[in-house]
Amino acid sequence: MNDDELDEMRRRMQDSLIQAKRDQLEEEHGGLQFGEGKMPPEMEMAWLDSVLEFEQKFENAQLTTVRERLGNPEVKPVSEVPLYALEEALDELLTLLATENITVDFMGEWDVLDAYRFITEELLDEEIDDVHIEDMWTHFPATTAVYDVEMWVKDFVWELLVWERADFLQKQGNPPLRDMAGEVITAARLEPVWTMLGELARVVVEPVVTQVEGEEGESTAVVKFLYQDKDEAEAIPQVEAFFRLHPSPYTGWDVIQTSLVDDIVALL
Predict the structure, then answer these.
(1) pLDDT in tens, 75-110
(2) What is the pTM of this model?
(3) Sign of CA dihedral 189, 194, 196, 202
(4) Do residues 158 and 164 lie in contact, with contact meaning Cβ atoms separated by under 8 Å?
């Protein structure tokens, strides 16, 4: 048997092993989709092994808390840590979390005091799957109320102006969306605005000032309108709009009042 024939035999054996591994994953865990991969056979086999390990461990995983995962370390409450020592104490906590491949994604403006309080009073008691897989990290998002409000404003503007415009009002909750005079913003008012704007490539929402007091959030933001066929050097139409938000009965925040529609009409 010459070298070419040996290489062809090895290739067929690798293909057979890879397909057997795919069949095993599909049979045991179902719903997994495998396209025609372009990676080298050895790399694909290693990847399939890692997927199988992941699925098997999660299938049998027990729940634990972050605190238990860390070995129930002795952690001082924030009231017992002097202000001058807080930064070092926070760094030690983050390092300890990293030893178990746990990280916190702080979004928004966090100071050391609030970050330490979040970890010690909330994160340590969070439940996670007690799974250990090399190089796999557990990420916990940590957001401020101001960050959340600004993100929901951006989402609202995209839904109103770029995404499924026709379905926008159907997605609005109760109470309905109102303008600054307290009037309900109806489809009849939105249709001319959508027509005037035309088809946008995207919008850019830049918060100017945001405040959150209890269950009410207010944000003023610059909204820029970008078109696919416009030169970026051209002047970009924009407005400065106000948004009032209340907590959603489902998740996040709902915009319940805005000046955006009237601001666009005034601009165009």
Answers:
(1) 999 999 999 999 999 999 999 999 999 999 999 999
(2) 0.73
(3) positive
(4) no
